[in-house]
Amino acid sequence: MLVLFRFFSLWPLPALHALGGALGWLVWLCNSGYRRRFRANVLQAGLPFNLAQPAIAEAGRFVAELPKLWLRPFDASCLANVDMQGKDHAERAFSLGKGVIFFGPHCGSFELGPQALAEVYGPKTGAITAIYRPARQLSLAALELATRQRPQLKVLPASLSAVKAMHKALKGNKAVALLTDQVPPEGLGVWAPFFGKPAYTMTLAARLALQSGAAVLPVSCERLPKGRGYIVKIWPPLDLGAGADKPGLLDAVTRINQAIEAIVTSQPGQYLWGYGRYKTPRQETPAQDTVKKDSV
Questions:
Q1: CA-to-CA separations, 224 to 56, 61, 63, 221, 236, in angstroms, rounded
Q2: CB distance 246 to 240 below 8 Å
């Protein structure tokens, strides 16, 4: 697999995205279960299918660009074709001295986001800490571990020690990065509304914010057409309350989900609609059709 990744890492980005677009449509045509899940998720979001249809090709482009993102030389910048917007939000957040939680969805080039943020803010505040769930395939898991690390980006497999590392980073006014729309393992989430339907949602970002007082900043990573590059946008910070107005855990998780919804609806043609966002973790009791805010 590493040999294959090295081969494709040498391709220019426009060629990779052209190949990836074709791959996305091939998967769409060959996988009926994927098509059903894709359509059901778009319908749940209340969006016309034509707005989400470009995401069929974009899912393939995400896969095709991974070799270039993962095997980029450690001393090579990823910012040459990146337009980073909203940096003033991050600068104000760091000035508060309680750390920053960057988070986003499976939308656009979400693998690039942490790399770009780390390159911009790592030299100023210290390395950004991110956690991920290793792939089940051993060869891919080994590749992830070897290639996701960057000089200013500390990427750790999900574990208790990784969560402790995030707490430590925030105490030092550093940043952490999370994909908050992935379904967490059993016992590590709550049922919270996502596009009007209960979805088992990770609590890590909300817990970190409520316990540390860190600023919480949504981030989107839009892929530009024809391999022209990317737009990484830092959105305004979420208001999770303070003091007596601090929300409960479910309320905080719901606000984070609402921010994810805003990103997705701003670029529906780049969200991974085929992701099983509403799946039930093993041994977890399925949620009812409504979620009461006082249930947690």
A1: 15, 11, 15, 10, 22
A2: yes
Main-chain phi, psi angles of 177, to 5 degrees: -135, 135
> Strand pairing partners for 85?
233
How far apart, in Å, are the Cα atoms of 119 and each of 51, 106, 222, 226? Answer: 32, 21, 18, 24
Angle, CA of 65, 67 and 73, to the nearest 5°: 115
Closest CA to 119 of 165, 161, 76, 162: 76
Query: Tokens 């069929």 map to which residue?
Result: 56
Q: Name the burial class of residue 75, with classes exposed (0-12), middle (13-18) and buried (19+) by CB atoms within 10 angstroms of its CB.
A: exposed
Note the pLDDT tens digit of each residue in 220-241: 999 999 999 999 999 999 988 6
Other CB atoms within 10 Å distance of the CB of residue 235:
18
What are the backbone dihedrals phi and psi of residue 90, each rounded to the nearest 5 degrees, phi first? -70, -40
Say how many C-beta atoms besides its own lie within 10 A of residue 39's C-beta.
14
What local confidence, expressed as pLDDT, does residue 244 receive?
Answer: 46
- The per-residue pLDDT for range 141-155, each reduced to its tens digit, is 778 877 888 889 999
Q: How far is CA 262 from CA 32, 45, 153, in A?
A: 28, 11, 27
0.85 exceeded by the pTM? yes
Tokens 């609806």 found at: 265
The label of the residue with tokens 């009812």 reads 288
User: Burial of 201 by CB count in 10 Å (0-12 exposed, 13-18 middle, 19+ buried)?
Assistant: buried
Compute φ and ψ for 129, nearest 5 degrees.
-105, 130
Label the pairing between strands 128-132 and 82-85. unpaired
Q: Whose CA is closest to 207, among 218, 198, 216, 194?
A: 216
Phi-psi region at 229: left, alpha or beta (left = phi > 0; alpha = psi -120 to 50): left
